[in-house]
């Protein structure tokens, strides 16, 4: 199944794709549908003019893995890791698959195309097999990062938790339809020029590893998200370094799932507002 | 006012202290009371046998600051920072002021006594003055950390986001009653022996700095939490290093606010369950 949260004249609804159409599911969005199981309900009427929006507006947890593709690890000058590098985002960090990305306060906004996992059933201290069985679906994310803020301190969080900067979607595809374990192409394009491409088969820690590992210390619930990390090709690692510019169109694709298409709206608001510098 | 979430025979209620008594407020807990403003409502009847439990069970965001007292920064061998070091916890990471702390999977559980700030009004891109005015209250936290997990990778998150390991409470004190900006003693004791003591007046980034800084990249809402960092004296920095042991009683106090009193229940469950090692 290909699931989405779609806009309607009266709000949003969870929906399942039927050919060219979207049929309503009995939940206002996929966060609700994963929470109550209604993502698997019988599809209702076709939703006229349905447009996929942010599929999961209220995940309880968003856990991200860094340094998880060999090529990206090498471009940052590091060794292959023994454990996944993890950090968190907020639900507020997410935004829709075609939303403009309103960026400011940094001149070093960078892209990170990623495969994202949607948790389907509760998970606590799971092994790999249980973790894999708990995967509810797959989607696409771009972990945009303000590299200067990310490197201000040892902890990356403040460069990666800016409201409405991580596009997600456009659809959540159930595991019977795609198999990232076997390998799906993850790619990123800026104004049509490819800047990242790798296969999910080369992940150091795959989705089952990550869900099992995270479930060691915190319970994962239906609708929670785990972002699996980005391939090589980010702007920070280029020579010269390359940052996102106002008006550029950022496309983020995972083969067999879908494509995010977001326009960069970059402003430097220094005149009206100065980032807090408190030292 | 001294506010709490207290247990009753039929669940919990938000409450305000009246001498020796707790009087009910019209919300099931302080998360609800901060969300709808009912923390300021007229107090109702005395709650018989009221016992403070986790005051804020559902903060939307929990942001923590590391390396924020000069003495603790020096004991980790670092320089005074230009920017606050930030990371996130989940609501699930929190636990009540007298709850046992069930720890496992690490033999390096360490303590971090902290002053915590409760956001009172929505905050976005605030300056220091607006941030200070948005403080809804003050409480006490202990940012227990599994040091081996914290140091497995560059990101501390996986050592600091274990479910039910950060005690919080016992009360939330409104800003008219205590003034951490002027200096309150933060202390930590293990079985009655003091291991940490410093004054909130020596914070590198005070609560107004932190709320303003965080509000640069993400909106803060009523009931959100910001933990301000821990003084020197953690077990990791001792010679020899010193970790929490089964049966020890951990007391965490901020002068004028209150004391957390939690018993360590440490097990090494390796026989029944092995932490995921996925490399």
TrEMBL record, chains A, B:
Native source organism of the sequence: Klenkia terrae
A Pfam family per the record: FAA_hydrolase
Domain annotation Fumarylacetoacetase-like C-terminal: ranges: 61-264
InterPro entries: FAH, Fumarylacetoacetase-like_C, Fumarylacetoacetase_C_sf
The family this protein is said to belong to: Belongs to the FAH family.
Keyword terms: Hydrolase, Metal-binding
Protein name (Swiss-Prot/TrEMBL): Fumarylacetoacetate hydrolase family protein
This protein's record includes keyword Hydrolase: yes
GO molecular function, one term: hydrolase activity
